[in-house]
Design brief:
Elements (H helix, E strand, L loop, with lengths): L7 H23 L6 H30 L9 H8 L1 H18 L10 H5 L2 H6 L5 H30 L7 H28 L12 H26 L8 H32 L2 H13 L1 H18 L3 H5 L1 H35 L3 H5 L4 H16 L7 H22 L12 H5 L5
């Protein structure tokens, strides 16, 4: 079948998932602190994660078109559908930006003008880290991504009804794709600095944007594998076979290693230099989030490395889908670890009780204070994702898939006039 039908059953499942997310957000808000830090950090975490997955989808479309790639053509509608979530993602992150203006939250230390005036580091960064840059950077840069995603999909659909033997539509797509690549390259780094890295406002790393982007790219490939296998199990994508899954598995394997290289490079250089204002980022996570800190590396490197090292495991739907599920969850946890610790520190500063105040006296009092603080943070979903964090993820996942499947249902799954369709149909990996 070349036309996907978004059945009421699938629709109801996703509505149920979205409902779970809404309920969890409401419960989070009700039981939260004065700044609703758990609510807003969960909202930011999932908004950034799924928006970056959508960004990586349109990036890979543009890169494939520019590189004259053809192997992906039979399933490129999935990437086009994912990229349409950018519109939703920009709106969600604009809500966070509006919260900076309205003081709905205190996720970002630099968003408080009084703190900036008394902090030389924040003041030095204030030309970039400010409410206007956050809001208009999100709307303008994110809007540009969404425009190009819409344009590339529109041209792709027009090509289905175009009998031009010179492939004029595809040549136009190549021009748009070539323009988009450097735009995403520069603007995605800026937005990652704003959305994620600036949660730890005093810290920065020149590798961070690469690291966060690689994480989102792996998640996007994993989502692609899972949706292909799901749709094939329902009778769609008959032209997609184990050779396409094999190549997606190679990307999953390769970019997981690249992600690990960035993880190690960032950590090793900062650890070796041992400069206080740099080590604070990893010190916080190493000391207070050890399970996630080391688990992040085990899940997102060792699992794909050892399972996907063999050729046959990349081709088998069972092993590929298993690793893909682990990668989605693993890189969602990676973004959790990027955002939650900094949000907690900023919250503690705003409420006037940092780690020192929580700990109390020295000796047994200090140990007891840290233990109480750790338990409190665990219960509040900061040390480890709790049920409300998992439920919120399910809600955002439902929204993401609802947008993607709605888009898929509006056109043919097979781009019948794409000049590279025949190459993709006969794609074979030795």
């Amino acid at each position: 079948m070349n036309q996907y039908t978004f059945t009421s059953g699938h629709r109801n499942v996703l509505f149920g998932a979205i409902g779970i997310g809404i309920v969890c957000l409401i419960l989070t808000w009700i039981g939260d602190d004065a700044y609703h830090t758990r609510f807003w950090s969960n909202f930011l975490h999932n908004s950034v994660f799924f928006t970056m997955v959508a960004c990586m989808a349109v990036f890979f479309i543009a890169a494939s078109i520019t590189a004259y790639s053809g192997w992906h053509t039979t399933f490129k509608r999935i990437w086009e559908a994912y990229s349409m979530f950018l519109i939703v993602g920009v709106v969600l992150l604009a809500v966070v930006g509006l919260g900076n203006y309205m003081h709905w939250h205190h996720l970002y230390h630099w968003s408080n003008a009084a703190d900036v005036e008394t902090d030389s580091v924040l003041k030095g960064k204030s030309s970039f880290l400010n409410n206007n840059w956050y809001m208009f950077g999100t709307l303008i840069f994110g809007g540009v991504w969404a425009f190009f995603a819409h344009k590339l999909r529109s041209l792709s659909l027009d090509e289905d009804n175009d009998g031009d033997k010179n492939f004029g539509k595809h040549k136009t797509m190549r021009k748009y794709a070539a323009v988009l690549l450097p735009i995403i390259g520069f603007t995605s780094a800026a937005l990652i600095w704003l959305w994620v890295m600036s949660v730890d406002a005093h810290w920065y790393s020149t590798l961070f944007a690469w690291y966060a982007t690689a994480s989102a790219f792996v998640a996007m490939i994993a989502f692609t594998i899972l949706l292909i296998i799901f749709l094939k199990s329902n009778g769609y994508f008959s032209l997609v076979n184990e050779n396409h899954i094999h190549d997606l598995g190679k990307y999953l394997f390769a970019i997981s290693i690249f992600w690990t290289y960035l993880w190690f490079s960032q950590f090793m250089l900062i650890w070796y230099a041992n400069i206080g204002e740099e080590t604070i980022y990893f010190r916080e996570r190493y000391d207070n989030y050890p399970a996630l800190f080391f688990g992040n590396l085990i899940i997102n490197f060792l699992v794909p490395f050892f399972i996907l090292m063999r050729n046959d495991t990349k081709r088998k739907f069972g092993s590929a889908s298993f690793v893909a599920i682990i990668m989605v969850l693993g890189h969602w946890l990676d973004y959790f670890l990027m955002i939650k610790p900094g949000a907690l520190i900023t919250r503690n500063h705003a409420l006037g009780h940092g780690h020192e105040a929580e700990a109390g006296a020295t000796g047994h009092g200090e140990a007891g204070g840290h233990a109480v603080e750790h338990v409190s943070n665990f219960v509040a979903g900061f040390t480890m994702p709790g049920l409300l964090e998992i439920g919120t993820f399910i809600g955002f996942l439902g929204l993401f898939l609802y947008v993607a499947l709605t888009i898929l249902s509006k056109s043919s799954l097979v781009p019948k006039n794409d000049p590279y369709l025949d190459e993709s149909v006969h794609h074979h990996v030795i």
